[in-house]
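User: Please predict the structure of the protein below. I'd like the answer in structure-token form so I can feed it into my own downstream comparison script.

Assistant: Understood. Taking the following sequence of 812 residues as input:
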Amino acid sequence: MAFKFHDYKIEDTKPRFGWKKRPNWMPKEMPWPVPGKELTFNYTLDQQAIDALAAKSKSDQNRSLLLEDKFQRLASDWKLIVSKSHARNSFVNEEKVGEIMALENAAVFAERAVPQDAKVLVAKMNKGTDQSNDWGLGFGLTLTNSSPRLYWRASEGKVVFFDGKRDNGTFEVGKADQLWFRYEIADKELLAQASLDGQQWHTVGHLSLKSGDKIQLVRVGKMDPNGENKDGKASTKEGRSKIEGFWAYGDFSSQFAGDLSSKLAYMKNVTVQVHYDLYDDMPIFSKWITVKNQSDREIVVNSFKSEQLAVFEPESSVDHRSRWLYPNITVETDYTFGGMSEEVVYSSSLEWKKDPLYTTQVHYDRETPCLLEVAPKMGPEQQVAAGGEFASYRVWELLNDSWERERKSLGYRKMLRSMAPWATENPILMHVRSSDNESVKKAIDQAAEVGFEMVIMTFWSGFNAEDDSPENLKRMKELADYAHSKGIELGGYSLLASRHIDAKNDVVLPEGMHPRFGSSPCIESEWGQAYFKKLYNLYESSGLGVFEHDGSYPGDWCYSTDHPGHHNEKDSQWNQFKRITDFYKWCREKGIYLNIPDMYFLNGGNKVGMGYREANWSLPRAQQEIVERQNIFDGTWAKAPSMGWMFVPLVEYQGGGKEATIEPLKDHLPHYEQRLANLFGAGVQACYRGPQLYDSPETKNVVTKWVNFYKKHREVLDSDIIHVRRPDGMDYDAIFHVNPAGKEKGLLMIYNPLDEAITRKIKVNLYYTGLKGNVQVVEQDQNSRTMPLNAASEGIFEVNIPAKSQTWFVIK
């Protein structure tokens, strides 16, 4: 069955949701929606397709399951027939039921009676190391008048059907490791089928059944050429194989019985749309599907696969690999959760799978992961009412033109920056450690004085986003109004995942399964729905403008059948994800800034962690300086500077004592200035956590100096970083901001971590500035000179940097 092409249309791209821009936090204007065209293909079902759907509905999964045995133990109904030609011959090898160890031409199998009403029998087998042919792994029957057998001629790469008298049909399977065998009794005929995946069946042969012919026994394992238990010519070759499972099915349930074509006629009014967004000047496209239900009844979208892309393998690997190189396509989706790394997409919404149908791949066992499939791991199991619509999540595919790391990462950064342009908003922020009025107002006043733009009432500050009392809402509005009067945005922190509520409202999981963070509420429980109601109310009524959401929804399934927001585990992930992303999109429409330590960029998130370890901020101060620059250097391979936050513990944080703490700020001013130079020089904002940003005029001047530096060069500092030399504390380290579309084409930051001054000649490639020939170089906004570039766009920077200091060059 397939929906058939009906028509198509081309339109301009449309915004996925609203975005209230905050231009004062952005280096430059960003377009929304992303410029380009949307191409939509419409598919519907005609009568021929309805008939095919009716036929497909006659699948085994819609039959009554009479028997299932995955051979986790040996059921008493099985009788074992094991050749005595060798002591190792067995059907239970090393206590593993169904694992056959046998000589090449030895009969080793299990047999049993089948349920009386069985109409379909299925067996799943893995050939392992068994290369037998005549005595190959098989699926046999004993009928009243014959003993047919489906068997695997492993070394020849084919399946053969023996009809009780002769071989009567073959199916080429190549070097497949596992197969499914199937028998179906239909219209006085026995169909013998095989499959590579258990979904698509190939009819290998058939046998006409005589009057009174009934299945007496089923056999799984190694039988002789006649489906019996005789041994062949002696051989010393032995092999190990596995019977993975056996299933017996009966008739179809009532809903799949009768005239299905008439029952399914309403499906003619269901339209499936396949959408593509094609973007201007970028080798990127987006794809998603929608299902429009224009029928008169509810339908359910149980599952979907919105993309399947077969790609040639990127490496020539004949043997097994513990780590594969994926095809050179960067793939991202907006159904991502469970971490702040781009890699989490593989655990949530897509997978590179092996493609056994790709028979010419060089890998011996055809296990190269070269088939991209985009589908949720669970569900979505979404009900679509009459007149309603379902939309899948979106996938973005970036076609890389190089394997070079910097170039590939630049492409990924541009993709995220374009598809989630709010990630370019990069306000300078402070984490105030106490949420009482006096502390918050002091933080607001100091932030305004030195040019900061945001204050967040941090974790452990006393801020409670769940306090919906009139008194708290009134106090928050007064503080927000005060902050706005100073040009500051104010907000607070809330913990969601990793907390325990109670047995009624936490996620419910089977024994042996655990939430991603140990404990977690189900956000479609009564508590979860009330939690989000409180958040909407707080931010709507108070005017707070930033929300730091820690432990965002990590993708936990919930098996509860009592929670109001989902039915069971099948729709739990989809519904919980929608609950939280609806809130994030609402925040984006309101201009509320979102700090979220998970990859929610494509659903409205502004920033994640740059990639730090909290314990690092309990190290001695000198070590923190190097670790900080290392985290930035490493974190900006997959992020633009604006996309990740760092951390500056102005007061003690998780231990470390005085050696790890900057307070009193004036007593550690050289270190404080180095931290400011590290961060503002990288265009990366940190959470400056403490009661104050300065404690003396000298401290205030230093903070103001680096804030002014950042704001003066904001456009180029917020641009992409080219990685010159990673910090190691042994020599200089350097990063190079590039912005070919700006007035300042580049800004090179060079740091000297040593206790002595250094003089260096540093070759830097300026290719990504777009400049050629001679360029203008200005050091520390003072000394300007002309620098020639060679044919490779490289220039030589001669630097003299004092001990424990830095310099920078603007390139025009």
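That's the full token string. Residues 61-256 form a domain with the Jelly Rolls fold (CATH 2.60.120.200).
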